[in-house]
Amino acid sequence: MVVDVTQKGVYSTYTRGALSLFITIRCNPLISAANLSIQFGAKRLFENVSVTFGNGNRYGLIGANGCGKSTLMKILAGELEPGFGNVSVDPNARIGQLSQDQFAYEEYRVLDTVIMGYQRLWEVMQERDRLYSLPQMSDEDGMLVADLDYGKLHVYPGNYDEYMTAATQARERMYANNAKKKVKMVELQAFVSRFSANASKARQATSRARQLEKIELEDIKQSSRVSPYIRFEQDKPLRRIAVEATGISKGFDEGSLFENLDLTIEAGSRVAILGQNGIGKTTLARTLLQEIAADDAA
């Protein structure tokens, strides 16, 4: 028998002629045995065996015929209870194993034989191969959608579009059924409130009250999905006023272009500066953009 422990596993191989057992531990899962003892009748196979397998090592278990190698492997794999002691397996480990008959796997590839140690994975691969072998594969044969939402897992046949249609219809039915129930509850409650004190219709009112108690609204949970969206982060704070100038003046040796100018431009505004050539339009724009300094500004 071979036992191979991966992050989710122990696979093992057995060599009959060499009478050896191999244990492969991958990643860091551990199998620990403490004070294992077992005997069959008067024959004691082993006593107080304590060992830890792990840290990515491969182990070879050797010994004479009948010394208890297979029995120890069965105990480690959980197939056999020891007479005394215990075995602990890391909770993140998954144990897979192959039988002790190497002739059972002669017709299989080595990879397939190893995968057989994890029965669930082997079944999935066989189903995959069956689907691929079909001359024509329908969506029902080859496609299922498992939807984990609303705190539950639901499996839908078909492709994604068919799943969306079926899931939407199912949720709409839930809302529709609850709406019908609410209407019925209002009608029953109105009858009970109106005739509960009426002696001639007291029995009918009691019957309606019982019907009302039996109606249960379906608990429709909120979806855990979050619709995708794009969000643009604005690092620079937005202000209503884009430009504000108070008492700015600018001139050159030839004279003043503008004096004591007050100007406010709101964000989003479009402003055109008009005037004759040389009057100072470009100078004003460059001053507002702070490319050149004003002579006076408040």
Write the layout of secondary structure elements.
Layout: E1 2-6, E2 11-15, E3 20-25, E4 31-40, E5 43-53, E6 58-62, H1 69-76, E7 84-89, E8 94-97, H2 110-115, H3 119-133, H4 139-142, E9 144-149, E10 152-157, H5 160-195, H6 202-214, E11 241-252, E12 255-266, H7 281-288
Parallel strand pairs: 1-3
Antiparallel strand pairs: 1-8, 2-3, 3-6, 4-5, 4-7, 9-10, 11-12
Helix pairs in contact: 5-6
SSE run: EEEEEEHEEHHHEEHHEEH
Low-confidence stretches at least 5 residues in length (pLDDT < 50)?
Answer: 1-22
- Average predicted local confidence, pLDDT: 79
DSSP strand tally: 12
Count helical runs: 7
The biggest beta sheet, please?
5 strands, mixed
Structural class: alpha+beta
Strand proportion: 25-35%
CA-based gyration radius: 41 Å
* Shape call: flat
Distance linking N and C termini = 91 Å
Assign a percent range to the helix content: 25-40%
Give structural attributes:
298 residues, five-stranded mixed β-sheet, three-stranded antiparallel β-sheet, 30% helix
How does this structure look, described?
- The chain is of the alpha+beta class and 298 residues long.
- It is 30% helix and 30% strand.
- It contains seven helices and twelve strands.
- Strands 1, 2, 3, 6 and 8 form a five-stranded mixed beta sheet that branches. A three-stranded antiparallel beta sheet has the order 5-4-7, with no helix packed on it. It has a two-stranded antiparallel sheet with strand order 9-10.
- Strand 4 (31-40) and strand 5 form a beta hairpin.
- Helix 5 packs antiparallel against helix 6.
- The longest helix is centred in the middle third of the chain and has 36 residues, at 160-195.
- The model is unreliable at 1-22 (pLDDT under 50).
